[in-house]
Design goal:
Chain A: It is a multi-pass membrane protein. With about 450 residues, chain A is mostly helical. Chain A is built from 19 helices and no strands. Classes of the chains: A mainly alpha (about 450), B alpha/beta (about 450).
């Protein structure tokens, strides 16, 4: 579609920008921006201050939807359906053609047309997709796409009202959708964590006290911390060691694939595989681990029920098994990017292999190390599947991510669940900030 | 460009066309969303936790109804229905009808305010077809919301009739006889007679709660059971401890469990369904499980490598866990309830059908399930075992109680109670476990 637009603009009139020099145009621009932002703010506050789980019929925009259209169509006579479908198809094609045709034209009238289209497309999309769950997500995508496209068209026409102004105006629908779909739920969760189970009575910090005093809550916090500390360190340590040892070795690719394969397995799949490894029964052993134990004359151990912490370590092994490959691949790539001259210079200075690794390689791959460490740390903070599949949080193996879902789904305890979510967010926050800061630091250096 | 000139004429025409379609769509769709508007919806969506072959059978049982009324019924099963339905209903995405497997969950749904009171006709049908107890499980604060659907009977002890004959023993009539029987089998075979498995993913522990509930109902009677469900009898009270001690007599005794799986602790890591295979091939003499276990025997083999026959003289059969005194018939069981979220005429028709003996007959005939509907025909049940179970449910002299853990608040019934039994098997002391479970009420 964009191809068509470019073709059109090539044939359009030469640019003649009047904006910026014209004080009247600037005044209009300012008013529009103020009104637009006031509208966005009003919408946002309306959402926050209205009760969270109200009847969603309130935001439903009438009975128009793609679903009702097809249901109406389905009840008609088959011969009548044919022309109607053809007309509908033609209408959609026509609408798209109209947009393509008028979108890149210069002039205020066309600018307004573009703006109206940019607002109307998401609203129409929302009305049509309404009966489907996750409709908002699709509409965000549609709004982003139409906003970007129309902005591009407007920019190409060089007759719009200034780059930044255009950008803001055209992407506003998408931004509003994001506010509704992402930022509003986050704030609503924060508020809910101060209310009781059903979300009706204000209970102050009671949910947070529950998190840090109830055994289930405390274990989920303790285990999450263990996960966040042990999992990234060990996966990076193993991944780095492996990457260094196989660097420029024979059959490097094959060796890499072997360790990278578990990355492709989902956590649920990995959990099921390792559940068989840890299997516990008397007589013939199904699980490898107990088969080894009994081979040396020991009694089989119920690995996933050994408290405290042994079972958590067993779960950690599964996670590390899946993440080592990820760390290895990224670190291996950055090791190869360390300049050979530096290594040679260090060699000439008479350093041994360990000193070269510690003083040349590690500083050289520092930024990759940080990225891998923080990424795996964030992943281990969010872990849910492994715990759910392997132990279901029994025997003190629960983690924040799992307990959050457990409290909400099984016990309908929205207060506890939200409090756990907020605690989890607080754990993740410093990592994200650190990641972002080290990234921006790098940019400064460059 | 030549083309754009033509577009300029086409554009308004296209816009008018699109607007016309949108408007006609509106106008026609407004009254009731389809066929004429007076008969209600043409398709009724039902959601529930029943999946696989049983879901197909459920869809099939509406075949005659659809033929008679023209109303399509579409049942869609969801494996994590219990976790999802409340979120869906509060989020405005409720189905027309939900098949709710637990009264506790039903109460949570009713609390959302979206479940409609059952129509008068359905209430009347339930009065005619079910005992007052069953109606009571769908009633909250004096308002009747949901009719029962199918049922299952818990508290069976599965065994091998052939082995029993070989050992010269018979099904016991009292709890003491059961213990004597256990000792006899142990002497004759030298193995642990009982096997048990509590593992069931996130729901692990529930098979154990059935044991405790059976014993409370048999030892202390239905009144105490009701008070226990209501929370008036606490887990720390002596009646409940007595039940734990009795169950512990079997489950915590290394001489009695866990045939073919390991020691006492292996109960926790054994999947409840895996037990069927051990009973079928003869390595496990006795196991305690609900009537549904008969379906698990279809997938396993006996010692000769054939599918075991479930019959009084076959490879496997079951007797009801005996009471303390001979002749007591206190049983517990479970079942589903049919809750509606709108009063569309078609929905009401489906509700009426599901509360009728015709529906029970249609579904029971398809096999594998039973109903507590008193006017349904037990001879339609797919096996001799299920026919007997259905007769027990329909019998007026049977004292029937619903699964206690399904009736308790979910933080206890599917939280601390399940978890407590896992800890108990792992070796935690009974008193500690009981106070842990009781603490679930404060969660």
């Amino acid at each position: 579609m964009s191809q068509v637009i470019i073709d059109e603009t090539e044939t359009s009139e030469p640019p003649q920008t009047t904006h910026g020099a014209d004080p009247k145009g600037r005044a209009i621009t300012r008013t529009l921006v103020v009104v637009g932002f006031a509208l966005i703010a009003a919408l946002f506050f309306l959402l926050i201050f209205s009760a969270p789980a109200e009847d969603p019929a309130r935001i439903a925009l009438g009975p128009v939807s793609l679903n009702t259209f097809f249901m109406w169509l389905g009840d008609l006579h088959p011969l009548i359906q044919i022309p109607i479908i053809l007309i509908a198809f033609g209408a959609v094609v026509a609408a798209i053609l109209v947009l393509i045709e008028y979108a890149p034209r210069p002039g205020r009238g066309y600018f307004i047309l573009r703006l109206v289209a940019c607002l109307a497309v998401p609203v129409l999309a929302f009305m049509m997709l309404r009966p489907y769950s996750n409709a908002v997500l699709y509409v965000v995508g549609i709004a982003l796409l139409s906003g970007a496209l129309l902005f591009f068209a407007d920019y190409r026409s060089r007759q719009g009202a200034g780059y930044l102004f255009q950008l803001i105006l055209f992407l506003a629908p998408a931004a509003i959708m994001l506010l509704i779909g992402l930022i509003y739920p986050a704030i609503a969760t924060f508020f809910k964590s101060f209310f009781d189970k059903t979300g009706t009575d204000f209970v102050g910090l009671e949910n947070y006290i529950w998190v840090f005093t109830n055994p289930v809550g405390t274990w989920s916090v303790i285990n999450t911390l263990i996960w966040a500390l042990v999992a990234p360190t060990l996966s990076v340590a193993f991944g780095l060691a492996y990457a260094v040892f196989i660097d420029r070795a024979r059959g490097e690719k094959v060796l890499k694939v072997l360790v990278f394969m578990p990355v492709a397995i989902s956590f649920v799949g990995a959990g099921i595989i390792w559940k068989f490894m840890y299997d516990y029964r008397q007589g013939e052993q199904l699980g490898l681990l107990n088969a080894i134990v009994t081979l040396f004359g020991g009694d089989p151990v119920s690995w996933l029920a050994v408290k405290p912490l042994v079972n958590t370590v067993m779960l950690l092994i599964v996670f590390i098994w899946t993440q080592t490959g990820f760390a290895m691949v990224i670190l291996s790539a950055s090791i190869k990017a360390v300049p050979v001259e530096q290594m040679e210079a260090a060699e000439l200075d008479g350093t041994n292999a360990w000193q070269r690794f510690w003083n040349v390689t590690v500083p050289g791959i520092r930024s990759s190390l940080i990225v891998v460490l923080t990424t795996i740390a964030i992943m281990s903070l969010k872990v849910y599947d492994i715990v759910a599949v392997m132990t279901g949080g029994r025997d003190d193996t629960t983690v924040l991510g799992f307990e959050m879902v457990n409290q909400q789904q099984r016990f309908q305890s929205y207060g506890h669940s939200s409090a756990l979510a907020v605690v989890l967010f607080l754990f993740v926050l410093p990592l994200i900030i650190y990641n972002a800061r080290s990234l921006s630091k790098q940019r400064e250096i460059r | 460009m030549a083309l754009s000139q033509r577009y300029r004429l086409l554009a308004p025409l296209a816009l008018v066309g699109a607007a016309a379609i949108a408007l006609t769509g509106c106008a026609e769709a407004a009254p009731g969303g389809g066929d004429g508007g007076s008969d209600g919806k043409s398709t009724i969506r039902i959601a529930g936790g029943i999946t696989g072959g049983e879901a197909d059978a459920l869809n099939e049982s509406f075949a005659q109804f659809t033929k008679d009324t023209g109303i399509e019924v579409e049942y869609i099963g969801d494996k994590s229905f219990e976790g999802n339905i409340v979120t869906k209903v509060t989020g405005g995405d409720a189905p027309d009808i939900a098949i709710v497997p637990q009264p506790g969950l039903l109460k949570t749904l009713v609390d959302t305010g979206k479940v409609l009171e059952a129509p008068e006709s359905v209430s009347k049908a339930v009065d005619e077809n079910w005992s007052a107890d069953w109606k009571n499980y769908g009633t909250f604060d004096g308002t009747f919301y949901a009719a029962p659907m199918l049922a299952n009977l818990k508290g069976y002890v599965w065994y091998s009739p052939a082995s029993f004959e070989e050992w010269g023993v018979e099904a016991p009539k009292t709890w003491d006889e059961l213990i004597t029987l256990t000792d006899t089998i142990r002497e004759k075979t030298g193995n642990a007679p009982w096997c048990a498995g509590f593992a069931s993913d996130a729901a692990s522990g529930w098979p154990g709660t059935d044991w405790i509930e059976d014993l409370v109902l048999r030892q202390s009677g239905a009144d105490t059971y009701d008070k226990w469900v209501a929370g008036d009898v606490k887990f720390t009270d002596p009646e409940i401890k007595e039940a734990f001690d009795a169950v512990g007599e079997i489950l915590l005794n290394p001489d009695y469990v866990n045939a073919g799986f390991g020691d006492v602790k292996s109960i926790n890591s054994t999947a409840f369904g895996d037990v069927a295979a051990k009973v079928a091939d003869g390595s496990c003499a006795l196991t305690h499980q609900a009537s549904f276990l008969s379906a698990n025997f279809l997938d396993v083999t006996n010692a000769d490598g054939e599918t075991p026959t479930v019959a009084p003289d076959g490879d496997v059969y079951a007797f009801l866990l005996p009471g303390i005194n001979e002749g007591d018939l206190n049983v517990e069981g479970g079942g589903e309830f049919v809750a509606a979220f709108n009063d569309d005429p078609s929905t009401v028709k489906v509700l009426e059908f599901m509360a009728s003996p015709e529906f029970a007959d249609a579904r029971v005939k398809l096999g594998g399930v039973i109903s507590a509907n008193k006017n349904a025909d037990p001879s339609l049940a797919s096996s001799e075992f299920l026919q007997e179970a259905m007769k027990t449910l329909q019998d007026d002299s049977t004292v029937f109680r619903f699964d206690a853990s399904d009736l308790m608040p979910s933080t206890v019934g599917s939280g601390s109670f399940w978890k407590g039994l896992i800890d108990w098997v792992d070796g935690k002391s009974t008193d500690e476990v009981l106070s842990d479970i009781q603490a679930g009420y404060e969660n």
